[in-house]
Amino acid sequence: MEQLLKQAGMKVTRQRVAMLAVLAQQHGHALTADELYEKVNCSTVVDRSTVYRSLAGMESRGLVERMDRRDGTACYCLAGQEHNHLLMCVRCQKTVPIPGCPLHHMEESIGAATGFVMLGHTLELTGICPDCAAKK
């Protein structure tokens, strides 16, 4: 993680190293800044504002990728990992990752057909989770 920060021209701090380590452990499942803050704070003391500032810097340097949920919440994952898309409950906002990416080949085809340089995509499916459905 230290090497990634150095290559990106960022100062190596224990908080940034911890943040990248947590994101790497998610295997493409994106976390909100608050979720990342909670997970990092289990092992390293970090201010919430540090998480937000570091994520912005890491995003601008290509270390993390940002995905925006339909509700406007930003989620982050380590760049270069195969990403997952989300299934979100419209009642309680619970999210469940959808493993793999069914759109990767479609993205390549669309880029080739249109001449666009594809930068990425987001997909969020919505529904009602089993817990909320049981409450009716």
Draw up the topology in text.
Layout: H1 2-7, H2 14-25, E1 31-32, H3 33-40, H4 48-60, E2 64-68, E3 74-78, E4 85-89, E5 95-98, H5 104-114, E6 124-127, H6 130-135
Parallel strand pairs: 4-6
Antiparallel strand pairs: 1-3, 2-3, 4-5
Helix pairs in contact: 2-3, 3-4
Question: What would a concise description of this structure say?
Answer:
The protein is 41% helix and 18% strand. With 136 residues, the protein is of the alpha+beta class. The protein has two domains: 1-81, Orthogonal Bundle (Arc Repressor Mutant, subunit A); 84-136, 2-Layer Sandwich (Dna Ligase, domain 1).
Description of the structure:
This protein is an alpha+beta fold. It has two domains: 81 residues, Orthogonal Bundle (Arc Repressor Mutant, subunit A); 53 residues, Dna Ligase, domain 1 (2-Layer Sandwich). Helices cover 41% and strands 18% of the residues. The strands form two sheets. It has a three-stranded antiparallel beta sheet with strand order 1-3-2. Strands 5-4-6 form a three-stranded mixed beta sheet, with no helix packed on it. Helix 2 crosses helix 3 and helix 3 crosses helix 4. The chain is flat, with a radius of gyration of 16 Å. The termini are far apart. The model has no long low-confidence stretch (mean pLDDT 87).
Record field, number of beta strands? 6
Kindly report the CATH topology of the largest domain: Arc Repressor Mutant, subunit A
Helix content, binned percent: 40-55%
CATH superfamily of the largest domain: Winged helix-like DNA-binding domain superfamily/Winged helix DNA-binding domain
Mean pLDDT: 87
Specify the CATH architecture of the largest domain: Orthogonal Bundle
Give the end-to-end Cα distance, rounded to a whole number of Å.
46 Å
Number of domains: 2
SSE topology string: HHEHHEEEEHEH
Q: What is the C-alpha radius of gyration, as a whole number of Å?
A: 16 Å
CATH hierarchy class name of the largest domain: Mainly Alpha
Q: Which residue ranges are poorly predicted, with pLDDT under 50 across at least 5 consecutive positions?
A: none
Shape: flat
Task: Count the DSSP helices.
Answer: 6
